[in-house]
Amino acid sequence: MNRTIPSVYTEHLDERSDGQTLGQGAAISWRGFWTGAFLSFFLAIGAPYANTAMHATFMAWDFNTPGAIFLFLVLIGLLNALFKVASRSRAKAIGLAVAAPVLFVTYYGLNEVDTLRPGLWLASFLLASALLNVPLAFRGMTLALNRADLVLVYVMLLVVSALCTMGMSQQLLPIISALAYYATPENKWAEKLVPLMPDRRILVDDGSDNQSFYEGLGPHVSVPWEAWMEPLFWWSILLMSLYVAMISAAVILRRQWMERERLAYPLTQVGLAMVRGEGEKGLVNSFFRSRAMWCGAALPLFFGALKGLHSYDPSYPLINLSWVASYVGTQTLQLRVVFSIIGFSYLINTHISAGLWFFHLLAKAESEALALAGMRSTQTFVYGIAEQPYLAYQAGGALIAMVLMGLWVGRQHLRDVLRKALTGADDVDDSDEVASYRGALCGLVGGSAVVVVWLWLMETKLWVALLFVVLALLIFIGISRIVAEAGLAAVRAPMIAPDLVMQGLGSTLVGSGSVFNMSLAYIWASDIRIFILALMANGLKLIEEMDRRSRRLVLYGAYLAVCIGAFGSCWMVLNMAYRHGGINLVGWFFKGGPAVVYDTAVRNLEPAGIAWNELGFFALGGGIMVLLTWARQHLLWWPLHPLGFAVAANHLMNKIWFSIFIAWVLKCAVMRYGGPAFYLRSQRFFLGLIAGEALINGLWIVVDYVTGHTRNIIFILG
């Protein structure tokens, strides 16, 4: 059988890849980097500021990235329109350049200047832009962004979302400093773990057990950077290598997922709609002129407004959108309406959404059956499917099997990537990618090799380090595939790589030094609810909207965003901790999460052999996934996508399955009674659900920032 892509379809892809939908001359310019760099920094400091100083809604917690969507809405609806107005005449440009400094000096001349306040940075950007716009206006130029610039900005915001809170900074900094502060004779951290620490200084101890980091020093004390420099140096080597490998993997998989398998990429559809709605002449983006979009946005705006007002004045009614129902035995179901999940799930195939909610109900029943049969593992998990370890192994095996089968299906594309990278094959064209296949392959292999060597230098057994990195990358790819295909804004691995290695193989085989380092790997491979690979893979969906010449610049923007996101978020988190005290900020990040890491290390140091029963469930899950995949490909009547089997037992699914079910019912009804044409028109309503939820989250943070109100959480997935 000839498995090559038909030439007619290849020509169609080439025409679309030329970026013809962008309009004449639409290429990435310095303006995209100017705006993208600032908004990336603003998100990097703003998201951790919101959830630490304000205890507000988490804006970079899951793959729905409300912070990125909100800032993009502000850019499209306000900033870009302001740039267009200022470029229409020299008088307007001069007027704006005069008004901006006056307002800046008037406000900050009467108030104390605090560099940790994100508003200061926003005001400074607007001031600099207003002054910069004057010489541009006299030359007939503008700061307004075209579509290619907007794609660059959105990709950069997605990358920063993966680093600024859950994905990196608020995991890394507390964990590497917690051992010195929380160690007690009772938890035996110092007794058991300090002897296992490598010679290289990868944990922080400022000489006073990091007391000032966790208890605070007040607003006028600087961060003791000398205590942090060496540990952060070592961790930056590991994490930057990991991010290079992830971005490279996203580049390699892009064509297979996007052009050959035609995945839906629901998470990018709002950004894509806003990019396509941007015109060269119109002042208002056409996305904001859609009545259907505003009808959809009205729902989260209404319920979010009530919830925010209730936080200020309890006399405002609080409408409950979550209920609990009995299911089988002791199992319960959460019936929770999450507007963004409904919006994302409406954009996917009904077989996928049916598989997600059906396999969740099935997993609940299986969990109850295992409990009644007295089958429960003695292992202890915190992440993944913690309540039933056997199901964690089963779903973990299913996830790995899904990834391996996916790589097998894409073997022709992967073979082409290898041929192009190693021999420069002329028949393989990589000019439409953001990086050459040779560069991407070097990034993937080189970045992964550095991670392996880093773990080995930290006294992990070499074969354990190699196995662990391979498993971690497979899990990252699997979750990324699920996010790209099923649009799950809240999902995490059913079983994480550190637990699979440590508890699956046992401490006797793995070794005590490896156990210690696998526990520290929780920093980047544990509660992986958001990470660069998945968001970069989604961001690359947008490069279809730009010309080939500009695509290579997206890679520079992504790496710039990595640096800005890492630096900005770490700077903010460190300053907030030393000012207010980490124990007064986010309890999970500064106490619960670090405790899990070191308690897990101590527990797993106990002698244990290979967990044959658990690995049996791992193999069983992989076998079931193979059968489900065969059924989907060979039985035309089979209604369930096997993807759901890998993630449906996760506790996060319990919070979103009902919203997926609602979207499935609505889409089935629309397709049956309205047809494909009506479905395409109705998509704007569901995009409005997503945009409205991000908008109301961001608006209340702005209001709370101005008023000084705290603990006002609007919509959060889990």
What does this structure look like?
By secondary structure, this protein is mainly α. It has one domain (18-87, 142-707). The chain contains 29 helices and two strands. It has a two-stranded antiparallel ribbon. Helix 10 (225-260) crosses helix 23 and helix 19 runs antiparallel to helix 21. The two termini are 47 Å apart.
Report a brief summary of the structure.
With 718 residues, this protein is mainly alpha-helical.
Average pLDDT score: 91
Q: List the domain count as a whole number.
A: 1
Q: Which oligomerization state do the chains in this entry correspond to?
A: single chain
| Low-pLDDT regions | 15-25
The share of residues in extended strands comes to: under 5%
Count, helices = 29
Instruction: Please state how the strands of the largest beta sheet are arranged side by side.
Output: 1-2
Shape, per Cα inertia axes:
globular
- Total number of strands: 2
Distance between the termini: 47 Å
Measured on Cα atoms, how large is the radius of gyration?
25 Å
The helix-and-strand class reads: mainly alpha
Helix content: 55-70%
Largest sheet: 2 strands, antiparallel
